[in-house]
Design goal:
- The chain has a 7-stranded antiparallel β-sheet, with helices on both faces.
- It is about 35% helix and about 15% strand.
- With about 425 residues, it is an alpha+beta fold.
- It has a domain of about 270 residues: DD-peptidase/beta-lactamase superfamily (Beta-lactamase, 3-Layer(aba) Sandwich).
- The radius of gyration is 22 Å and the shape is globular.
Length: about 425
């Protein structure tokens, strides 16, 4: 006779095999892959979770100890989420939205400016258009932005930061006369058309991480989709994935720069002992390279969509995690489509952001099935080494979990 634990495991195995077969059959019936609501992914089996409860508790206590210590040592102020092998292990907020006065406690639903972590979402928009046959990665940018003055720059080179285009921030600083008026993407393009600053190098002749690449990609999304970038992102990524606390902050309809960004929590800079609430800025009108606001949980939904191929087919998505540049002894890490690729690691990708009082970190170790998301609204705080130590600590590693996926019969999602 089987004991109670054996019966649970046997039932779990039969359930998992049946679910896998059903899901594969449903997948094969789909004529095309469209986004599937992430609400259809249910938590791991409650019986299965009971078996893992001791390790989950140990992991959670370890992470709480780490971030409580970082709060004391570095003034960590923000939100954090850690997931492993299908389990949301730890999610917590530390500190305040009003850093200067220590008021308005943060919650896990607090919205933070993602800074350059926005780039992976811009890349996902481009990949969706490619999946729908609306553009090719090797198309010349001028196919979609015909007024662009530089020859031979492809969509792929923008994604990989290999275009050689000089920084739009420098150009705007010199040539955008009235800094009280927002600089929008079309304005940025007009500045390049009018002044044509010298590129750093010829297209595909090097790697240079530069925000202009992803600002141009946002403009490509607009030209191809005939939608504002913020509307496209809401319709094609945020809403289908249930990212209800995510948005692109747009200054499109603003005639002047507001005193402060009116969405999300404010960012703070430290100047000596002074804490400064960061004001809005004319450069915040440029989208694609920054200006996405989100929460740790919404970003986890995005990570789940990548894990389960719900936004894009996995065979297409893998190109986002492939190195875009040759190996270089001075640059161990590489860059894919909106993701940095960790050198010397097995399938680890990440991105950091740092802009106007915000620092953000998104790490996915796809081999170990670990995800760590850290959002902060201070320009100072713990460095990324602390977060990689969490990823690489395997003392309480969890085995794979069952995932119950409700097969959605809604034809709109097929």
């Amino acid at each position: 006779m089987m004991d109670s634990r054996s019966r649970i495991i046997a039932v779990f195995l039969v359930f998992t095999l049946t679910l896998t077969a059903c899901h594969e059959k449903a997948r094969q019936k789909q004529e095309k892959i469209n986004p599937v609501l992430l609400q259809s992914i249910l938590p791991p089996d409650s019986l299965y979770l009971d078996l893992d409860a001791p390790r989950l508790t140990q992991q959670s206590h370890r992470l709480d100890s780490v971030f409580s210590r970082l709060q004391k040592l570095t003034g960590f102020n923000g939100t954090v989420l850690f997931a492993e092998n299908g389990r949301l292990v730890y999610e917590k907020a530390f500190g305040f939205a009003d850093v200067r006065r220590h008021r308005d406690s943060l919650t896990v639903d607090s919205q933070f400016q993602l800074a350059s972590v926005s780039k992976m979402f811009t890349a996902a928009a481009i990949m969706l258009l490619h999946h729908n046959g609306m553009l090719q990665y090797d198309d010349d940018v001028r196919k979609y932005i015909p007024e662009w003055p530089y020859e031979g720059i492809s969509i792929r080179q923008l994604l990989h930061h290999r275009s050689g285009i000089s920084r739009y921030e420098t150009l705007a600083h010199e040539k955008w006369a009235d800094k009280t008026i927002p600089l929008l993407n079309d304005d940025m393009i007009r500045l390049y058309v009018e002044y044509q600053p010298a590129p750093y190098f010829k297209p595909d002749n090097g790697f240079h991480y530069c925000n202009v690449n992803y600002a141009l990609l946002a403009s490509v999304v607009e030209r191809v989709s005939h939608q504002h970038f913020e509307d496209f992102m809401q319709e094609r990524i945020f809403k289908p994935l249930g990212m209800t606390h995510s948005l692109i902050y747009s200054m499109r309809n603003d005639t002047t720069v507001s005193d402060f960004v009116p969405v999300g929590v404010p960012g703070y800079d430290f100047r000596g002992r002074r804490v400064i609430k960061v004001r809005n800025d004319y450069l915040n009108g440029v989208l694609g390279d920054k200006m996405m606001y989100s929460t740790v949980h919404d970003m986890y939904l995005f990570s789940l969509a990548l894990d389960y191929g719900l936004l894009l087919p996995k065979d297409e998505l893998k190109e986002a995690f492939e190195p875009g540049s040759p190996r270089h002894r001075r640059r161990p890490d590489n860059y894919g489509f909106g993701w940095r690729i960790k050198g010397g690691a097995d399938s680890a990708v990440y991105h950091y952001g740092w802009w106007k009082g915000f620092r953000t970190f998104f790490i996915r170790d796809m081999a170990q099935h670990k995800t760590l998301i850290v959002l902060t609204n201070k320009d100072k705080g713990p460095g990324s080494d602390h977060f990689w130590n969490i990823i690489n600590d395997n003392r309480y590693s969890l085995p794979p979990a069952s995932v119950n996926m409700k097969l959605n019969d809604n034809k709109e999602n097929r």
